[in-house]
Specification:
The complex is a heterodimer. Chain A is mainly α. Chain A folds into two domains: 130 residues, no CATH class; 218 residues, MetI-like fold, CATH 1.10.3720.10. In chain A, helix 1 packs across helix 18, helix 14 runs antiparallel to helix 15 and helix 15 runs antiparallel to helix 18. Chain A is extended and about 90 Å long. Chain B folds into two domains: 187 residues, no CATH class; 235 residues, MetI-like (MetI-like fold, Orthogonal Bundle). In chain B, strands 1-2 form a two-stranded antiparallel sheet. Classes of the chains: A mainly alpha, B mainly alpha. At the A-B interface, helix 1, helix 10, helix 11, helix 12 and helix 13 of A face helix 8, helix 10, helix 11, helix 12 and helix 13 of B.
């Protein structure tokens, strides 16, 4: 093409124009590629930033303390019953064992700084040991207990010692002690089991997501128990039985519109109907499940209808032909063939529900709840709401835990979506 | 007329309830009914289920034992018996659940009216009901003897009422079973009955979608109407000042309780506008590239990846906006000498834009793929470049679908909550400056409702009025978008 440029028969204006048009074409194509690149970059950036902020929360620094279980402190009257054992002054024992490592620290203010290195959970841990084996009173035990979140963050390198002392929460003296302990092997870094075995706490080093995970599980359970049968039944009716009339048209328009109503509006519905009118308990996963099932119902209905539509009519006709009733042909033949498609849609809807938090805030599932729920009627928090609450906390150490909780949530979501893809791939049939 | 009627109904209901209660009370008071009283509703339903399972088993074996030819298979006879047993009991339980508590409360209040406390009761009737309920549940604060008595009466009424209901429910179940027993003959069309019942259940499920919409509209309109009794509609829609803190005392300063929602609408539009400015160009060019230029394998890879963006929970975006993007923008602004607030509209809107990219790109991609090949080939054959073909042929043909997608994305942006709650701030300022903090409708809904409030204070009700505005706005956008998309689909299908 370009070698014809030399031809003098065609005015050069034509070539200029052609060149401009080709440049415009290249530009246009580049914009498209740039847009794809930009969108993907955002995705990568989002994941990287969360992993970068959160990976450190998966480990914690623990201090090994040798505590002498002095009977005079724990149980001076020698009763050894559970009440006197549980109310003993374990904090003093823990603190004394730490002070024993630094005999030169005697001044009150300095001692307070030293004890500030310990988490307030240390005395609980010691109490658990004693309560489990009261026979060990009088001996010495070795316990591992988490450090305070500020000390932990310093040892992880998240707090720079170059910042002026007045602007950081960990003081120079404490840094010297921490370094001494670290060098002496008194402190080591290990996998943060607290994060996965504890409920919420005001202290970052004692806070975990177990309560939220269990709460989310109950919420999902309620949601799926309610929305799956209802959604499938509605889809079967609309796809197989419903006559075309104004009423079924109304239902269809409604379902399409509900799928696009902001979720916070569903929260208002739940607040007005379930909480105010029916008086169901606040913060229980039951109410949250009711609201979430209403939210994901359109998703399930639409997916189930698509799956039913994909089953060829010959299946129905064959069943009818050998004498099955219409209901039998659907329940025995069409529905089983549509199950993979319905499952895929349901799992995607559930993944959506798992990440939903705005309606839950509106119906009041934002309480600070330490206990891990036992039944769906217990007050509970769920993963996304826990993330919201932690992200709001002033403590810096909660930021890394928030990001860690986000990673856990994303892992659940990825697993659910992968399951949906696997089901679709495995059971997809070409008729 | 209304109150007189109510009083009469109440009196009659009271008499009926008292008579029945008298009969049951003796039975209850005597001996070993304690365990029975504690039985939870769930346990009662479990009992009903158990009885129904029995009914199924017996119905099944009776049908199986029939010697003459029967119309339906034994399993249908069994199901029929089980259903006839379970449903009447369930209906009784449901009716009791809906009516029991208000009835008992009315009677308890009547008892209260007989005591010297009555002038007080007349003054704060609504408050007293809550107090009685709290006392009966064992955590009331006011230890007034008359109230305590009423509460005890209330608790007793509820207990006896429960026993009565349990007896009724089990009785109804057994009655249903007896009827089913008599109907179980070879000629009984058990399958038809079961299929009919199943179909009714399916219709009810499908109607739930309509009921949900009705529920949303009724609850929003009803609560908003209560709100507009306090605040005029004009003040709400056109007022320029928003400060929902209500004065606790009349003489309090600075807590006027202004409910002018214009700053919220402006903030919502500003943030949604920023989001659309990010999402529309990126989404549209992405769709153009994946639909027109990219190889099929590239498209198959990129499209699901982009849809991940729509699947990430919004609370994650909120965290990203509040703790990564906002500080970054603030520091960049400080370096450039621009004051960017740490809760800027830019951070929230930008991150929201990332979230809704797939809403734009996915639908646009679908409709561009659906544009017939002949149109493209005609244009290319006339010598147009690919970009010219796209701009002059494909895009105009796909425009309705694209516009529909953009409208859906806009409705998503307006209704999005968590990102703005976490990253957009609370100050209701009327400004178009994207570097300052603004607040949105959804943020205010959440802030007004989080924390324990009286349900009928204007502050709480304002959330419903805002919800109504939000619902109407998004519904409007959705209806138009769905209409546009549907019209487009019809054009080429």
């Amino acid at each position: 093409m370009t070698d014809t440029k030399t031809s003098s028969l065609v005015p050069s204006a034509v070539y200029d124009r052609l060149r401009r048009r080709r440049a415009a074409e290249r530009r246009f194509r580049f914009y498209g590629l740039a847009a794809v690149g930009l969108a993907l970059m955002m995705l990568v950036f989002l994941f990287v930033s969360i992993v970068r902020q959160g990976y450190s929360a998966f480990t914690e620094h623990v201090i090994t303390l040798t505590v002498a279980l002095d009977p005079a402190v724990i149980d001076p009257e020698g009763r050894r019953n559970s009440q006197s054992l549980s109310s003993a002054d374990y904090q003093r024992l823990v603190r004394e064992s730490l002070a024993a490592l630094f005999p030169d620290v005697t001044e009150r203010a300095e001692r307070r700084l030293l004890f500030g290195l310990l988490s307030s959970g240390a005395s609980h841990r010691l109490r658990d040991v004693v309560m489990r084996e009261p026979a060990r009173i009088g001996t010495t035990v070795v316990i591992e207990t988490p450090l305070d979140d500020d000390a932990d963050r310093f040892l992880k390198g998240l707090v720079s010692p170059d910042v002026p002392e007045s602007e950081r929460r960990i003081k120079d003296r404490q840094i010297v002690w921490l370094k001494a302990l670290h060098a002496g092997g008194g402190i080591h870094n290990r996998f943060n089991t607290t994060l996965f075995t504890a409920g919420d706490s005001r202290e970052p080093e004692l806070a975990g997501i177990l309560g939220a995970v269990v709460g989310s599980f109950y919420l999902m359970l309620t949601t799926v128990v309610l929305s799956f049968p209802i959604g499938v039944a509605a889809a079967v009716y609309l796809e197989e039985f419903a006559p075309r009339n104004r009423f079924t048209d109304l239902i269809e328009v409604n379902i399409n519109n509900l799928a696009a109503v902001p979720s916070v509006v569903f929260g208002l519905l739940g607040l007005a109907i379930f909480l105010d009118f029916f008086g169901l308990p606040r913060s229980a996963s039951l109410v949250g499940g009711l609201v979430l099932s209403l939210i994901i119902l359109p998703t399930i209905i639409i997916a189930a209808r698509a799956a039913l539509k994909a089953v060829p009519p010959s299946i129905r006709e064959a069943a009818l032909g050998v004498g099955a009733s219409k209901m039998q042909s659907i329940l025995h033949h069409v529905l089983p063939l549509a199950v993979p498609g319905i499952m895929t849609g349901t799992i995607i809807g559930m993944a959506h529900a798992l990440g939903e938090s705005a309606p839950l805030l509106v119906i009041g599932m934002v309480a600070f709840i330490v206990d891990v729920p036992v039944t769906p009627l217990d007050p509970t928090t769920v993963l996304p709401v826990q993330i919201y609450l932690w992200a709001d906390s002033a403590e810096r150490a909660f930021v890394e835990r928030t990001a860690a909780a986000i990673m856990v949530l994303l892992i659940f979501l990825i697993a659910m979506n992968a399951l949906a893809v696997i089901i679709r791939k495995k059971f997809e049939r070409q008729w | 007329m209304g109150t007189l009627f109510c009083d009469r109904v109440r009196a009659i209901a009271g008499v009926v309830f008292q008579v029945v209660l008298g009969i049951v009370k003796d039975a209850v008071r005597q001996g070993s009914t304690r365990l029975f009283m504690r039985m939870h509703v769930l346990m009662l339903i479990a009992v009903l289920v158990l009885v129904s399972v029995f009914a199924f088993g017996i119905g099944h074996s009776r049908a199986e034992a029939m010697t003459c030819p029967r119309h339906s298979l034994p399993q249908y006879h069994g199901q029929c018996a089980a259903l006839a047993t379970f449903l009447p009991g369930l209906v009784v339980v449901a009716l009791w659940g809906a009516l029991e508590s208000p009835f008992a409360l009315i009677l308890a209040l009547d008892r209260l009216a007989e005591t010297p406390l009555s002038p007080l009761a007349a003054a704060e009737g609504h408050f007293l009901t809550a107090e009685i309920q709290a006392l009966a549940a064992g955590h009331g604060s006011r230890k007034d003897p008359a109230l305590m008595m009423a509460a005890q009466h209330y608790a007793e009424l509820r207990q006896t009422g429960f026993v009565l209901m349990a007896v009724l429910a089990v009785g109804a179940s057994l009655g249903g079973w007896a009827l089913a027993w008599r109907r179980l003959t070879p000629a009984c069309r058990a399958r038809n009955s079961i299929e009919h019942a199943l179909k009714i259940f399916m219709i009810l499920c499908a109607t739930l979608a309509v009921l949900t919409t009705v529920g949303i509209v009724v609850s929003l309109v009803f609560e908003s109407w209560r709100f507009f009794n306090h605040v005029s509609l004009m003040d709400f829609l056109f007022g320029l000042e928003w400060s929902p803190q209500m004065a606790i005392r009349a003489d309090q300063v600075g807590a006027s309780g202004a409910f002018g929602a214009v700053p919220l609408f402006a903030g919502t539009l500003l943030i949604a506008g920023i989001a659309m400015m990010v999402a529309v160009p990126v989404g549209l060019f992405t769709a153009i590239y994946t639909a027109e230029y990219a190889a099929p394998r590239f498209r198959a890879l990129v499209k699901p990846l982009l849809e991940i963006l729509a699947g990430i929970p919004t609370v994650v975006y909120g965290f990203f906006a509040a703790l990564t993007v906002a500080p970054f923008l603030r520091d960049t602004g400080a370096a450039l000498g621009v004051a960017i607030s740490s809760e800027s509209a830019l951070a929230a809107g930008g991150v929201m834009g990332i979230m809704i990219i797939p809403f734009v790109s996915s639908l646009a991609d679908d409709v561009m793929i659906a544009v017939p090949k002949a149109l493209r080939e005609g244009s290319l054959g006339l010598g147009a470049t690919r970009s010219e073909t796209i701009r002059h042929v494909v895009l105009p043909a796909a425009l309705p679908g694209i516009v529909g997608g953009i409208l859906l994305a806009a409705s998503r942006a307006i209704g999005e909550t968590m990102i703005v709650v976490m990253a957009a701030g609370l100050s209701a300022k009327l400004t178009a400056n994207p570097f300052t903090a603004v607040t949105t409708v959804t943020v205010q809904i959440v802030t007004l409702l989080v924390g324990d409030q009286e349900f009928d204070s204007p502050k709480t009700l304002a959330a419903f009025a805002l919800g109504l505005v939000l619902f109407v706005a998004t519904l409007f956008l959705n209806v138009i978008a769905l209409q546009v998309v549907r019209r487009y689909r019809q054009q080429y299908d």
